[in-house]
């Protein structure tokens, strides 16, 4: 690699670190936003003391950032082969000129097919693009906002397909380091803006090709018009209150036309402080795509048991306010409930129908069916919908004794954990007061 290239990369890394320091200088409690991922955040920051190449290579290894299979993995060839076949079936030709190799890719993850240098992460993100293109033409979109872009591989894929798109990335400052460095190095001539203070947004953000926004600036975001908002694999990893905040941003503040989500659904119940419900949609959407455990995730994670990989792929279109008065959400919800009742197997059709019914018009009848299933299946969504059913005056259906025991044990464990945290906090207060 040329020395002037390395110098440019060093400048990008330095710029990223300076922007990060400015953005978080007055933001206390960073560990609260990351939760269980706080130790990983500290590791991320350590890599910035080395080189940008080391930083990006670390991101490719870290499963919280990228989805890669190592060259030494016995699965890499199978995953790549099946993903290429899937992309071919979707008409996504990887031999196209615009699909050039990424800058600074780790040689530990790259392989070569038809003269192209590829990674499984790149193919996986192209698979997401192909699924979106079943319903939307990516080349025709003007603005995209991605929540939690990680390394920025999906952002890069979309930018290669549609060079004119304006791309907003909203993320925790620590992971924004990766997408900033990655996309700046892969699109050196693109205009960009890294928001470091709320005043940066006053002058408008639409004039840049890439805009990097630390998540704590959400309340100051202008009312942007967004053709497509995207989130993959993070709405279900954050706390429920944070997940709801982002969904409120998409549904009430920004003018979002379409929303794509690839997030957890029907996973086993746990007491971790992660969101029980990943994607909380209001009734004002038309569902274009609803696929449980889509093929791209099954291909990419061939050895993970299905109950641990549970993923729901959604693409929805916002219903204009002018047309909402014409719709009877109660009637539509009842129609979906009738479909669910007429479906014998509790598979894709049954779940889609009941999910739509509850989304459009939650009531005692549809929630009772939903809560009964979620409880007996010991799913993570059960507590949320149980509480919603109770709030509407409904009786919680009886579930299997084993499920009752599981929920009781884990809720008791959580209560003990909370009490322990309170006691520890009290001791610190007493020590501080010298008592």
Give a nutshell description of this structure.
This protein has helices at residues 3-24, 30-34, 38-47, 52-61, 76-89, 120-133, 153-161, 173-186, 240-253, 295-300, 306-309, 321-324, 329-341, 348-360, 364-376, 382-391, 401-433, and strands at residues 111-113, 116-118, 143-147, 166-171, 192-194, 210-214, 225-226, 228-232, 255-256, 258-264, 285-292, 311-318. With 435 residues, the protein is an alpha/beta fold.
Morphology: globular
The stretches of 5 or more residues where confidence is low (pLDDT under 50) are 414-435
Strand-and-helix sequence, N→C? HHHHHEEHEHEHEEEEHEEEHHEHHHHHH
Estimate the mean pLDDT confidence.
Answer: 87
Q: What is the beta-strand fraction?
A: 5-15%
Q: Name the strands of the widest sheet in spatial order.
A: 5-6-4-3-8-10-12-11
Give the N-to-C terminal Cα separation.
62 Å
Give the biggest beta sheet: 8 strands, mixed
Percentage of residues assigned to helices? 40-55%
Radius of gyration: 23 Å
Return the structural class: alpha/beta
Let me know the number of strands.
12
């Amino acid at each position: 690699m040329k020395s002037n290239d390395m110098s440019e990369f060093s400048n990008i890394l330095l710029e990223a670190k300076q922007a990060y320091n400015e953005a978080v200088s007055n933001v206390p409690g960073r560990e609260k936003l990351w939760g269980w991922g706080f130790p990983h955040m500290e590791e991320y920051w350590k890599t910035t003391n080395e080189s940008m190449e080391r930083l990006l290579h670390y991101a490719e290894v870290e499963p919280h950032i990228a989805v890669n299979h190592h060259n030494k993995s016995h699965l890499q060839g199978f995953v790549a082969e099946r993903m290429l076949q899937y992309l071919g079936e979707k008409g996504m030709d990887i031999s196209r000129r615009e699909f050039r190799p990424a800058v600074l890719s780790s040689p530990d993850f790259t392989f070569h097919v038809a003269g192209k240098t590829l990674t499984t992460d790149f193919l996986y993100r192209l698979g997401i693009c192909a699924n979106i293109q079943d319903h939307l033409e990516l080349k025709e979109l003007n603005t995209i906002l991605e929540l939690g872009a990680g390394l920025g591989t999906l952002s890069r894929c979309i930018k290669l397909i549609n060079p004119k798109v304006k791309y907003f990335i909203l993320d925790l400052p620590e992971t924004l380091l990766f997408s900033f460095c990655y996309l700046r190095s892969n699109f050196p001539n693109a205009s960009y803006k890294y928001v470091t203070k709320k005043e940066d947004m006053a002058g408008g953000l639409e004039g840049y090709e890439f805009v990097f926004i630390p998540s704590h600036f959400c309340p100051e975001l202008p009312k942007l018009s967004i053709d497509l908002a995207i989130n993959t694999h993070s709405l279900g990893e954050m706390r429920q209150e944070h997940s709801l905040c982002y969904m409120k941003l998409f549904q009430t503040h920004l003018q979002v036309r379409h929303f794509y989500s690839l997030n957890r659904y029907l996973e086993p119940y746990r007491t971790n402080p992660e969101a029980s419900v990943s994607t909380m949609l209001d009734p004002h959407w038309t569902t274009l795509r609803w696929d449980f455990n889509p093929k791209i995730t099954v291909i990419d994670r061939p050895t993970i048991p299905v109950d641990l990989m549970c993923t729901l792929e959604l693409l929805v279109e916002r219903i204009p306010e002018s047309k909402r008065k014409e719709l009877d959400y109660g009637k539509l919800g009842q129609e979906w409930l009738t479909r669910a009742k007429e479906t014998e197997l509790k598979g894709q059709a049954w779940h889609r129908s009941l999910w739509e019914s509850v989304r459009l018009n939650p009531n005692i009848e549809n929630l009772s069916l939903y809560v009964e299933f979620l409880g007996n299946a010991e799913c993570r969504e059960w507590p949320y919908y149980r509480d919603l059913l109770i709030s509407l005056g409904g009786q919680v259906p009886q579930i299997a004794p084993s499920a009752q025991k599981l929920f009781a044990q884990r809720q008791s464990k959580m209560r003990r954990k909370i009490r322990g945290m309170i006691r520890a906090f009290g001791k610190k207060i007493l020590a501080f007061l010298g008592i």
